[in-house]
Amino acid sequence: MVEKDEWTHIIKSKSSWLNIKLSQLWSFRDLIFLFVKRDFTATYKQTILGPLWHFLQPIISSFIFTFAFSFIAKISTENIPPVLFYLSGIVPWSYFAECTTRTSNTFVQNAGIFGKVFFPRMVVPVSSVLSNLIRFSVQFCLFLIFFFVYYLKGNVAIHPNYFILLFPVLIITMAFLGLGIGMIVSSLTIRYRDLSNLVGFGVQLLLYLSPVIFPVSIWPEKIRWIIFANPMTSIIEIFRYGFLGIGSFNLTSLLYSMCVAVVLLLTGIIIFNRVEKNFIDTI
Question: What is the pTM of this model?
Answer without folding.
Answer: 0.86
